From TrEMBL:
Gene3D superfamilies: Heme oxygenase-like. PANTHER family: HEME OXYGENASE. Heme b binds at residues 9, 16, 124, 173. Keywords: Heme, Iron, Metal-binding. It comes from Streptomyces viridosporus (strain ATCC 14672 / DSM 40746 / JCM 4963 / KCTC 9882 / NRRL B-12104 / FH 1290) (Streptomyces ghanaensis). GO terms for molecular function: heme binding; heme oxygenase (decyclizing) activity; metal ion binding. InterPro entries: Haem_Oase, Haem_Oase-like, Haem_Oase-like_multi-hlx. It holds the Pfam family Heme_oxygenase. This is Heme oxygenase. One of its GO terms (biological process) is heme catabolic process.
């Protein structure tokens, strides 16, 4: 039987392609959108990571989710620096979640509160993606809008405390393979992962509606 890390990766592959090729992502990575769209996207990420990281103190001692809580992954402080750069020191006063972002953050918060195994699905979907495709997004953002390489504006994508992302991802997959739940619960985690991807795609849809390309 396939390992759990292979299972979760294979099961979400189709939705990964869908997220990657969404209109908003394609336009953003194609350099067809202004920095305002990038800033608005970064704002949405703030709500997502606030939900992922605000309950970690309690989750850290959970037998199932605890091993995944790694401070070197935390992104909220980096996002706040990026937003101060993108929107100015008063960035909090204009920060607003799209309805899709609100739904996504609420689902993460509910898992963090009531279902630690489900929280793992959200953890995996975001952090492993950030360590992978996130690096492609950073490179494009630096080139398109002229941010300093690995500097303000793209700090979200820079994991200062993870010098070797490939090695980190290997360790992460070992954690997934060792997750202490039965097969049925593993299936539920996979289903939650698909839901996490769908929630991301719907944020992209909302952003796409806000930043349509004038044909
Ligand atoms: C244009 C946007 C994106 C690009 C270019 C991209 C690209 C990639 C690449 C190249 C990998 C390969 C990792 C590897 O083989 O080690 C990867 C993995 C991953 N991506 Fe993305 N990605 C994008 C968007 C997303 C989004 C929106 C999500 C979900 C929120 C996501 C979640 C993941 C996850 C969870 C993995 C890890 C798969 C695994 O090894 O288990 N990605 N991505």
């Amino acid at each position: 039987m396939d390992s759990f890390s292979t299972l979760i990766r294979t099961a979400s592959h189709e939705q990964h392609v869908e997220a990657e090729t969404s209109t908003f992502m394609s336009d953003l990575l194609g350099g067809r959108l202004g920095v305002d769209a990038y800033a608005r996207y970064t704002e949405q990420l703030w709500f997502v990571y606030e939900a992922l990281e605000s309950g970690t103190q309690r989750l850290a001692s959970d037998p199932v989710a605890g091993p995944f809580v790694r401070p070197e992954l935390f992104r909220l402080a980096a996002l706040e620096r990026d937003l101060a750069h993108l929107r100015g020191p008063d960035w909090r006063s204009t920060l607003a979640a799209l309805p899709a972002t609100r739904a996504y953050a609420e689902r993460i918060a509910a898992c963090a509160r009531d279902w630690p195994a489900g929280y793992i699905a959200h953890h995996y979907t975001r952090y492993l993606g950030d360590l992978s495709g996130g690096q492609i997004i950073r490179d494009k953002a630096e080139k398109t809008w002229g941010f300093t390489k690995k500097g303000d504006g793209v700090r979200f994508y820079v994991f200062e405390e993870i010098p070797n992302p490939a090695a980190f991802k290997r360790g992460y997959r070992e954690l997934l393979d060792a997750v202490a739940v039965d097969d049925l619960e593993k299936q539920r985690i996979v289903a939650e992962c698909k839901r996490a991807f769908a929630l991301n795609t719907s944020v992209f849809r909302g952003l796409g509606e806000e930043f349509p390309l004038s044909a």
